[in-house]
Amino acid sequence: MKLALAVALLLAAPVHAAPGDAAQAKEMLKRGIAFDTVKGRGKVPAYADYLKTALVAGGFAASDVAIDRHGETATLHLVWRGSGKKRPFAITGHMDVVEANPKDWVRDPFTPIEEDGFVFGRGSHDNKFDVTMAINALIALKSSGFKPNRDIHLFLSGDEETDWKTTEIQARAAKAAGVEFMLNTDNGGGTLDENLKPVAYNISAAEKTYADFKAVVTNPGGHSSLPTWPNAIAQLAAAAVKIDAYRFAPQINEITRASLTAEGRKRGGRTGAAMLAFVANPADPAAIATLRADPWLIGQISTTCIPTMVSAGHAENALPQRATMNINCRIFPGVPVDAVRAELEKVVADPAVKIGTDTVWLSSPASPLRADVMAAVAKALAATRPGLTAVPAMDAGASDSVWYRALGIPSFGTGGLFVRENEVFIHGLNERVRVASIAPAVDHWRVLISELAR
Ligand SMILES: [Zn+2]
């Protein structure tokens, strides 16, 4: 049923639209949603083929677009050769989407539906929206005869939401191609107020590192009627209390200095004042206390580590032989993962509690703000949302950018979508985007790309 519908959509009559204009972009977004690109469904290659067909119809040579299979998923790589006056840059995005259970949705998540001024569907926002808009901007530029002065690479990954295997492969390819910096379609973007007026734009230039550590206490155990001490559960519990009470030292970087300054001025009040005081003096105890008390801000000024799961004991009447706890950390960019592990051990200060991890967590530095990228974003905003200034931001989550930054490629989330704060449904139910947001987003990418490649 779903497959038949997707095929019917693909065969639908072509829309009469200029190459890369908003009507064509909307059609491409809707058709893209019909590809159920959740991990394990094997639909990413078909979506990649569809995008390649669109790029070729938009004027690119078939030989400029490579699609590589990686198990059930795929990558797409377009190279638009330029004059070579400058080093190449890359645009990235992902073709896969997070699972969506049709039973929980008001409308089928993989049937694109336009209603009440919105396009509904899984991926309508994350990340098919900005992938589609960037592709339409490339098509519009190509058909207008634009000649880039540097190679432009488009890397679309196929497992960003799950395994990141294809991201790693593409980041290495970008490095090998001499890519100087990367623009990620998957983060950054704007905010609309209640009256749909654009009020803010963030360019994502850094991400916290995600890491899980396991704290483990082992004990010979025995019968609970013959107690011995120490008790593994009590030792682990004491460690949990210490980690819970611990606060990592405050830190600041170029990105958070800019974002806290902009947000502090806008917000005002006690929190706004604390943001500005922290920027002026990152050791200001009153400012630190205020920012630490806000769950949205504590992560902006430091590493955070939280006990999130515990498991202990093997029988109701036995001394516990093993007690384990998961500690989830969001690490400030530039801090080595092992330094955080060592700090946790120091905090716990009990040699019986072993803290480790069997995973290699990817960490990446903050990207130094580039004058050319900031100027191009400013131009794109002036063209589409006059009066707005781009503010750098540090994201809590991890995107494809982590892999590029880890290889020394500065990466910037420069998405073109503007949303109301209460209308962000990525990874959630009834994901949607405003139809009115399509035209300015295509323009956003068109100006951004042409500014950086002229
Ligand atoms: Zn995404």
TrEMBL record:
GO BP, sorted A to Z: proteolysis
Peptidase M20 dimerisation domain residues are 206-353
What SUPFAM superfamilies is this protein classified in?
Answer: Bacterial exopeptidase dimerisation domain, Zn-dependent exopeptidases
Signal peptide (from-to): 1-17
Statement: the UniProt record of this protein carries the keyword Metal-binding: yes
Q: Could you tell me one molecular function GO term of this UniProt entry?
A: peptidase activity
The UniProt entry, under Gene3D superfamilies, shows: 1.10.150.900, 3.30.70.360, Zn peptidases
Tell me, what's a Pfam family for it? Peptidase_M20
Q: Does the keyword Zinc apply?
A: yes
For this UniProt record, the keywords arranged alphabetically read as follows:
Hydrolase, Metal-binding, Protease, Signal, Zinc
| NCBIfam families noted in UniProt | PRK09133.1
Task: Please give the family membership noted in the entry.
Answer: Belongs to the peptidase M20A family.
What is the name listed in the Swiss-Prot or TrEMBL entry for this protein?
M20/M25/M40 family metallo-hydrolase
